[in-house]
Design brief:
The structure is a single chain. The protein has 322 residues and is α/β, with parallel strands linked by helices. Helix content is 43%, strand content 19%. It has twelve helices and 13 strands. The strands form three sheets. Strands 4-11-10-9-5-8-6-7 form an eight-stranded parallel β-sheet, with helices on both faces. A three-stranded antiparallel β-sheet has the order 1-3-2, covered by helices on one side. Strands 12-13 form a two-stranded antiparallel sheet. β10, α10 and β11 form a beta-alpha-beta unit. α2 runs antiparallel to α3, α4 crosses α11 and α7 packs parallel to α8.
């Protein structure tokens, strides 16, 4: 067996070295970060005689792995998760790299259909300040209305400047019943008094994931209301920082995740890391700030396509304007 290591600044560059040097039968054994030096890829090749080895053309499997590695590198997916996704995709031996990536995402991450959220159990949105919880709660009410159902919007965020007026506007436009609640007992009372066909959406105040007292308060509120906790996170955050926050929220009981602002970011590695580390299921995604746009369903295929079509920002149009 021929065993070689390749070092480069990025994973795609290292994969290209593997392609050129080892050719059609190369097997990726591991990838390893080397700090500021970049990344090292170790690959192997079965051969009867190492001295007689001649590189051949790349196989479709290697091309698939190379394309997926390039996408994961663009999105700054943490190395450990990227390795797991690459290994899962490689085991499928698929020619369509998007479908291979989708299968890998399905294997490593969880997905919860939005249709499973209904009147039976309230959904409570939590997350840091400015994540988009209020807009997301309105979008959930919009989804309920489009499905022919009624909704109950319970806001705990009415004390902020303009918070109550915003909630009243959302409720009026969406035909939702609005209740302002300031503590877990008030939230539980509002939930217990909802109509049988009303989907209850609880909008909370922004929280600090590293403040234990705030997380306990959220957990107590969710327990009092018997609600499913869904973490709302904006796209574009640092993967390590976002993963730490997601882990803290998951320990408070968050089971699902709704990414927001996908239209205003070009790298989603933090979202993948957050869902993986926190063990949370993707529920849906916000791809627009407009309430009428609703939420986009997320499943392995739609997420793979989203990752594959998100290109780096090119400021050419701004330069032309100048």
């Amino acid at each position: 067996m021929l065993l070689r290591s390749f070092s480069a600044k990025t994973l795609p560059e290292a994969m290209e070295q593997v392609r050129l040097a080892l050719g059609d039968e190369a097997i990726i054994l591991s990838t390893q970060e080397e700090g500021f030096a970049g990344v090292k890829v170790t690959a192997a090749l079965e051969a009867d005689d190492d001295n007689d080895f001649r590189p051949g053309p790349p196989t479709s499997e290697l091309a698939v792995a190379d394309r997926i590695a390039s996408v994961l590198d663009h999105h700054r997916v943490p190395r450990g998760l990227a390795d797991r996704l690459l290994n899962a995709a490689a085991s499928l031996q698929a020619d369509d790299w998007v479908m291979a990536l989708a299968a890998a995402l399905d294997y490593e991450l969880g997905f919860l259909p939005l249709s499973e959220i209904g009147p039976g159990r309230p959904i409570m949105l939590i997350g840091p300040s400015g994540a988009g919880k209020s807009v997301t709660s309105a979008k959930l009410c919009a989804c309920a209305r489009l499905a022919g159902a009624r909704s109950l919007l319970i806001t705990m965020d009415s004390d902020k400047a303009g918070g109550r007026a915003q909630a009243e506007t959302f409720a009026d436009v969406l035909g939702a019943r609005l209740v302002c609640a300031s503590d877990p007992e008030a939230v539980a009372k509002a939930v217990s008094q909802r109509e049988a066909d009303e989907m209850a959406v609880i909008d909370t105040i922004g929280s600090n994931p590293f403040d234990g007292q705030e997380l306990r308060y959220l957990s107590e509120t969710a327990e009092a209301a018997a609600a499913t906790l869904a973490l709302v996170l904006p796209a574009g955050g640092d993967p390590a920082e976002v993963a730490d926050a997601a882990l803290a929220y998951s320990q408070a009981g968050a089971q699902a995740m709704i990414p927001t602002r996908l239209d205003a970011a070009r790298r989603f590695g933090g979202l993948l890391a957050a869902a993986h580390v926190g063990g949370m299921q993707f529920l849906a995604a916000g791809v627009s700030r407009h309430i009428g746009a609703g939420l986009t369903a997320l499943n392995p295929v739609s997420l793979a396509r989203l990752l594959s079509t998100c290109e780096p920002f090119e400021p050419s149009s701004l330069a032309a304007a100048d």
